[in-house]
Amino acid sequence: MKALILKELGQPLIVSDTDDPKANGGIIVDVKAAAMNHRDVWITKGMYPGIKVPIILGSDGVGLYQGKPVIINPNHNWGESEQYQSSTYHILGLPTQGTFAGKVRVDADKIRPKPEHLTMEQAAALPLGGMTAYRALMTRCQARKEDRVLISGVGGGVALFAFQFALALGCEVWVTSGSDWKIAKAEEMGAAGGLNYKTADWKSFGKQTGGFDVIIDSAGGDGFMNLVKLCNPGGRICFYGGTRGNISKLNPQIIFWKQLSIFGSTMGSDKEFNDMVDFVDRHKIVPVIDSIYTLEGGNDAFLRMEKGLQFGKIVFNIQ
Amino acid sequence: MKALILKELGQPLIVSDTDDPKANGGIIVDVKAAAMNHRDVWITKGMYPGIKVPIILGSDGVGLYQGKPVIINPNHNWGESEQYQSSTYHILGLPTQGTFAGKVRVDADKIRPKPEHLTMEQAAALPLGGMTAYRALMTRCQARKEDRVLISGVGGGVALFAFQFALALGCEVWVTSGSDWKIAKAEEMGAAGGLNYKTADWKSFGKQTGGFDVIIDSAGGDGFMNLVKLCNPGGRICFYGGTRGNISKLNPQIIFWKQLSIFGSTMGSDKEFNDMVDFVDRHKIVPVIDSIYTLEGGNDAFLRMEKGLQFGKIVFNIQ
């Protein structure tokens, strides 16, 4: 089969022919589309624990199994607790071979029919980002229709899913981004408005919006306290990333007086994966696709994500 | 009636005769015992919003109403939501006159029979600290029998209640303190062990204990990250104070990978007050009393709390 392979850290990815995977008690899916996550970029840079090369990256995929279109749950060994993953939890694409290839081996219980309203490319965009957003917004923050929601960094995959899911719930949703055009795109999709964090006046944003009940963040950093200040009493903030580094200057008095909850969240359980796909099916949500590449364009795709140019998911069409 | 009065910020409290309170649609309780909270000390130093002098402090009290012993719920206007207090929420002892007096005016629905297994002094120790601990441990952290629990700063009133409640649940409970003798006292009461944070080796403490599922803290500050590191996957940390100032150096990756929850919490709802008294009744919990003063010893009592010398509640016996 053809595959996009990371042979050495820091070196360009290479498309080459390689052996088909063995079923080993699982099943083989003929991959038709796959999608990128930040994780894939970080792995190529050595910024992830447990990296072994050569490896075929890719956690998101859809394809054919016994001729029928299926979507793949990227989880392995989430474990017994809904609260946290087991110590042996991992996802497709490291340490096991991922979806940026013609075929991928998965456990038989990790596929389900592709949502019918989605193309292969759209469905490929869904698994990891959708599951992560679902857990953050629905399980952790317990978002409800009456909540006013803020999504930070709206161009990213998880952020866009959280945005779309909150809209589907009927929430009033606001966004932040470092790019005015991304805010404009979100507004076209239904955002009530947005704040460019590079030129932000957080205080007047708080007044303008009336404050937030739920905030989904992936940045952390010193700016996190701005989010705390934007919270209404009883507010919940969930972060699934920390691209701006350590969180500092958190005022405990503001947090306890407003009875805030701050959640860290990553990935999602098998139940959350299934609930998320059901939710997408029920609300006919269509993932936002930024761009579609072939595996041969793999290095361009990785560069696009690394530079943060995307709005939505970067997808591979695999023939 | 006799009352302990704060006439001017920064000046000693004065015991003097003053007019009895008027019922004003509420009821008058003959106070028999009252108890101190850190809040009282902070108010005398001007470190609290909305201070008006002269004022009779005191949020905790028990006494007689129509000849029967009653315990007072210190809440006013908690409001409709269990998640957070209303904007008009306040508690006895500022801005309304408090319990360090022979009589206090409260709303009729704010008293309930004193738990029979407690003396007046023991029951007086319970309301605010017990309610705050109950909300933090039970409502916010959802502590269960199988959780390993850490209580920081175990000498304090709320910390001791959280400690006793966790023991009553059947949890394995550990403590921290800056005083070895406080740790020894907690061990006598059933703590599995303790850590002196002045000489702490947090890393070996984590190994020794096996990590924690629930942590109740009132310090915040730079040391908060030590608590995060001590958390097991799915762990919950709740803080109800921030005596060490802003929380800094919080590593988002550790928090989201371990799926941690960090809660700010203060006071409690009327429901939580009632649930807490029921819990104390059911488990026959006896609040720890550090010392008993008369109102005439008020300044000594305040100094004792200010210096952090106490282990348990500082109580006034009021005749």
What's the short version?
Chain A has 319 residues and is α/β, with parallel strands linked by helices. Helices cover 29% and strands 27% of the residues of chain A.
Overview of the structural elements:
Chain A has 319 residues and is α/β, with parallel strands linked by helices. The first copy, chain A, folds into 2 domains: 2-126 and 287-317, Medium-chain alcohol dehydrogenases, catalytic domain (Quinone Oxidoreductase, Chain A, domain 1), CATH 3.90.180.10; 131-264, 3-Layer(aba) Sandwich (Rossmann fold), CATH 3.40.50.720. The first copy, chain A, has 10 helices and 18 strands. In chain A, strands 3, 5, 6, 9, 10, 17 and 18 form a 7-stranded mixed β-sheet that branches. In chain A, strands 13-12-11-14-15-16 form a 6-stranded parallel β-sheet, with helices on both faces. In chain A, helix 3 crosses helix 4 (157-169) and helix 3 packs across helix 9. The longest helix of chain A is centred in the middle third of the chain and has 14 residues, at 127-140. The mean pLDDT of chain A is 97. The interface between A and B is medium-sized, with 34 and 34 residues. Strand 16 (261-264) of chain A pairs antiparallel with strand 16 (261-264) of chain B.
